Amino acid sequence: MSRARLNIFLERDHARRLDELAAMKGLSKSSIIAAALSSFLSPDSGDQREAAIAKRLDRLSRQLDKVERDQNILIETVALYVRYFLTVSTPVPEAHQEAARAQGRARFEQFIEQLGRHLLRGRSLVKDVYEEIQPEERQFFGLDASTGDHRPATPADSKTEAAP
């Protein structure tokens, strides 16, 4: 295959990045430029770019659908809790309202502190509560039974937990 020699001018940043890529991949700069030019001049390069963009958009759409689903679950959960709380809460007599407010402030401060600690740990409260209710089901979430750390479940896990 015969090749034509070209002298081209590149911006300094592009030349630096080309040098780095050639060194990292162990390829010649000419082969990298030839591959890039071939891809650019390919008749279906536009279709390939469009397909790649469509694939990314589909993935983003699925992720957004999951976020929307999770948000709806959260909204419904909070609404159900508020409705239940307001339904079963007894009114506080006038004489005890100041003490109830003080206790409410203290509970709210405690709630905020617990929330902060929990967020710093980076674990899901749903998983924690589920583990409290069903401790034998820890492998359901891929958790190490001794530390609570995430790890892949192995076939040995089911044998170990099945043995009394």
Structural features:
164 residues, mainly alpha, 3 domains, 6 helices, disordered C terminus
| DSSP, total strands | 0
User: What percentage of residues falls in helices of 4 or more residues?
Assistant: 55-70%
As a whole number of angstroms, the C-alpha radius of gyration is 30 Å
Largest sheet: none
Which spans have pLDDT < 50 for at least 5 consecutive residues?
150-164
The number of domains is 3
Structural class: mainly alpha
N-to-C span: 72 Å
User: Could you tell me the strand content as a percent range?
Assistant: under 5%
Give, in order, the helices and strands: HHHHHH
Query: Would you tell me the overall average pLDDT?
Result: 83
General shape: elongated
The number of helical runs is: 6
Describe the structure.
The protein folds into 3 domains: 10-41, no CATH class; 44-87; 121-159, no CATH class. It contains 6 helices and no strands. It has helices spanning 12-25, 29-41, 45-88, 97-121, 125-133, 155-162. It is elongated and about 95 Å long. Residues 150-164 have low confidence and may be disordered. This is CopG family transcriptional regulator. Residues 50-77 form a coiled coil. Keywords: Coiled coil. One of its GO terms (biological process) is regulation of DNA-templated transcription.
